[in-house]
Amino acid sequence: MSEHDFPLDLMEAQTAWYRTYWQLADSGPTASTTRNRRRLQELSAQIVGHPYWCGPSGSPAARMELKELARREVGR
């Protein structure tokens, strides 16, 4: 059970970050990676700049929990 209640948009952004990251990692050496790299940058900015982190729940432990939950949801 999660100790934190993450906003849906934050959880979706972190999950999308992992999906995009693994697409980029799995792409071949001749693949165009520009779109996925830009998407990772956009998602990173969205996650880091989310208002949730300004509140009392925005601890380093909460950041790690968000990452773990999202990674499990992606299945990698």
Give the SSE map.
Blueprint lengths: L7 H19 L7 H15 L11 H15 L2
What does this structure look like?
Helix content is 64%, strand content 0%. The mean pLDDT is 92. The longest helix has 19 residues, at 8-26. The protein has three helices and no strands. 9% of the residues are buried. It is elongated and about 45 Å long. It is mainly α. α1 (8-26) packs antiparallel against α2 (34-48).
Overall mean pLDDT: 92
> Strand pairing plus helix content: what structural class?
mainly alpha
Radius of gyration: 13 Å
Annotation, overall tally of beta strands: 0
Q: What order do the SSEs take from the amino end to the carboxyl end, as H and E? A: HHH
Calculate the terminal CA-CA distance, rounded to whole Å.
19 Å
Task: Give a short summary of the structure.
With 76 residues, this protein is mostly helical. The chain has helices at residues 8-26, 34-48, 60-74.
Key attributes of the depicted protein:
76 residues; mainly alpha; 3 helices
